[in-house]
Amino acid sequence: MNRIILSLLLLPLLIFAQSSAIKALEQQQNRYQKQILLEKTKLDSLNRELNTILAQIDSLNEQNASKNDISDLQAKSLSISKNVVASQTQIKALNKKIESVNKKLFKRYSRQIDSLNRVLSTEKDAQKREQITRELKLLTQKRIAVSPALKQFSFDPRKLFAINLRATKDSLKRAIIKDYIRNAINEVDTTLMNLNLKKQELINMKRLQEKAASFMDEVSDNQLYTSLPLKRGATGSFDLSAQSSGSRSLDAAATIEQLLTDLPDFNSFINQSMVAGDASKLDSVLTRIDATGKILSAYRAYLLEKLNQ
Amino acid sequence: MIERFNIRLPSLARRKQFAALIILMLVFQQLIAGQTGKFQIQSESGIGSFKGESVKIIWRSRLNAEQTYRWRRSSFNWKLFYQPELFDFSIKSSSQRLRGSIRFNNRFRQWFWTMQFQARYFSYRLDEQTFNWQSGNLTVEVLRPVKPKIFWDIQVGYWYRDSDDFSQQSLNALILQQGISVRHNNMLYQTGTYTERFKIRPRFQAITKSNSGYRVGLFFKMSAVKAIIFNSSYYLIYHRSEFYNRTNIEHQFKILIGKWLSPDWSLLFFTYITKRQPKFNTNETELLYAPADHQNRVYFKLGRDISKNREFYLKLGYEQEVLIKGDYEWSYWQLLAGMNFRIK
Q1: Are residues A139 and A176 located together in one domain of the fold?
Q2: ipTM
Q3: I want to staple A237 with a disulfide (CB 3.0 to 4.6 A). Which of A278, B38, B249, B277 is the partner?
Q4: What is the pLDDT of residues A175-192, one digit of tens each?
Q5: CB distance A233–B101 less than 8 Å?
Q6: Handedness of CA B330, B335, B339, B340 (dihedral sign)
């Protein structure tokens, strides 16, 4: 009882702390995005300049111009090329930073959503409930926007957030956008279908592993070492997946990303968890699949909402 | 065959059985009250026969309970297994098996370690004679990845066994097993060395001498899990003791295969074959070493899931045991039909 009261008292503090951390991360994300935009503009202008010089070199070559003229231009193009490479490296680094911030944000949003859901479950005041619900909807959208689950689509899921069909009056433009959204929904559906197929496959593997473990209990006395590798306890084995993936921790975001990047062939990931012969390890993979499925379903619902605007 | 051994009844057996039942009841209560855990009841019956004896009706029941507590980097698990068995529905021909284990897992940076204690009790009653053995082992296993797909694994353990059967002996052993595991695609390959230092003392007879010795060898294992479960292992062990001053070679093969035949039908196969050369030739069985698992066996199990928590199955098995003296050998087959209920 005391623990419940204490957690209820601490919950607003926790939400406040999370909100501040989220704000800081969002500012960081904005800063990086602005830097990327600037860098991209710079890269475009460098590329344009480079293309012009290359065209000039080609034309001088065709006119059999003097070597001096050409070598001057070549030196200039070399220097611009170096700048282009530097700019591309910078963009890559910024993208990595954004990715890392997005992962952190994904976790923070998830925690914030959980906390707000807890508050919502105890809140009686209708006005406050409405406010929390609005906040939850906004946070869910924000979480979708940074979800690694959306990274592998052929379309840019984040661009779809900016689409506003209500503001589009041109009927042709509206039809094109609607078509784009429909295609996006189809792609999300296909991914969800693949995810469900893999989930079923995993459930079957887990059931078979449990049966094998139970069978070993029946027919073998599981004596000491000679039996250990054949049946390393159903709950006691090591999670080799974390090791073999080379990461120090399997955070939710990274795993979802890994799941979807490997789709439709993410058997290798499953096997990493399976080599230890542990059916219970599959539970965590299944939980992660469910989490990914939920995010994709939420995104699908959001797209449908956009389509019906 | 069994009369030849002239075994006396141990006095503690009945009290241990009661204690086991009380523990099981407590466990059941805990499982029902708790949120996590597994509780399974199995019941099977059929026919079986020892070589040269009449066919007997077998009834067997099995209770399996376990619970796991998880934290961020560690987990704790306990398990209990109890199996009573009746032949021709007579308590005079019956057996009981009880197994329990506790296990603690932890991950510290790139080090994974497990500590486990396991205890087993087996009692076999035939007419007025009872044969018992109990054993336990405490093991510590450490696993460390050396490269993303290569792992180093070491297990150190202490093992004891008190037998009140044909051998009437107490065995104490220290075991060290270490090796390398390599994961490639869907397969896991393991190889390493096995070392065991043991000491045997007679339990009841007035023999003051004891026997100590070594068992050293190599092992190879291969496993795969995908649409099919495949696990295999081979141990080659050299055995030498002061009592039987001659090198003995032991081969152990194990294979486990599991496959779904359809969404509801599953097939499981297990075989274990052990072979020792040359056989011991002595009457002083009190000082002879018997490996932990020395029964050759082959089993098939065909199961059909009736619902999520219920399974019907048919099981066919054959076991053959070459007793440590080498003079005696028995074999046994059984054909059973059973139901498996998962309560939680």
Answers
A1: no
A2: 0.85
A3: A278
A4: 888 888 888 889 889 888
A5: yes
A6: positive
